[in-house]
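Example 284.
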Amino acid sequence: MTAKILDGNALAQKLRADFKTRAEALAAQGERPGLAVILVGEDAASQVYVRNKVKACEAAGFHSENIIFPADVAPQAVLDKIALLNADPKIHGILVQLPLPRNFDSDAVLEAISPAKDVDGFHVENVGALMQGQPRFIPCTPYGVMKFFEEAGIDLKGKEAVVIGRSNIVGKPMAMLLLHAGATVTVCHSQTKDLLFHTRRADVLVAAIGRPRFVTADMVKPGAVVIDVGINRLPDGKLCGDVDFEQVKEVASAITPVPGGVGPMTITMLLGNTIEAAERALNR
Ligand code: NAD
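Predicted structure in complex with nicotinamide-adenine-dinucleotide:
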């Protein structure tokens, strides 16, 4: 069996066309969607992510602000800036690029963002709403993954879903979304005793580990849907996922590639969340 490739670039393009139309409609009513992205320090990967986010905002017709602080900035200066953005009517979404320098209390920074502008969905209020099954902002990466299932017509009801990884950004919200969609969900992590036992019975397998080509064909149930969230840089500079794509595509029924799978969907859902925030602001 050769798996159907779930094309994140194509899906992202389709969704972004719709977001652009919605952004134009909002702008016509005086509520142009606005996103502020805060970056602290000079981490090379973070700089790339932030640049891509700002570029995507501009292409979608958003107002965007890119705020860069040096690595040695006092945490209070970042909190003060967030307070200003919370009160700024031009800004509907605020995102702080993680990771922050070690001297920062990342939780305190995330909690300082107004829940109404928390387009990453990391504020405890939004995490709680997701847990209750009444999400306000869904974290962008797992939100993007759910769009693949929707687009491919994959019904999750009654499916065995296994998520590898339990981070607040990907694994945990992913598990919650799969659960709300009717799947029976198992979350595996670095302490899981018999990973193979779990992955081999997964109808839907989501890998969010951060280890290159960790998921091999023998770990996958024939016909499973495999979603690869991982982004790893190999010594030769190339990107690869957490799944051994070449092997696993021969076993799975559908699979996301890296690059070109979940990655483009993450930024796309950030645009979607910012539009939702602007639409809510207009309706208030
Ligand atoms: P993280 O480091 O916070 O979490 C990794 C998780 O993997 C942990 O919960 C850990 O328990 C688990 N893990 C580690 N080793 C394991 C093992 N041997 N067996 C089972 N579980 C194991 O990482 P994260 O932020 O969740 O990101 C995971 C990956 O996804 C990374 O490659 C990251 O770059 C990528 N990522 C991609 C996007 C995207 O837009 N595509 C967004 C966020 C993260």
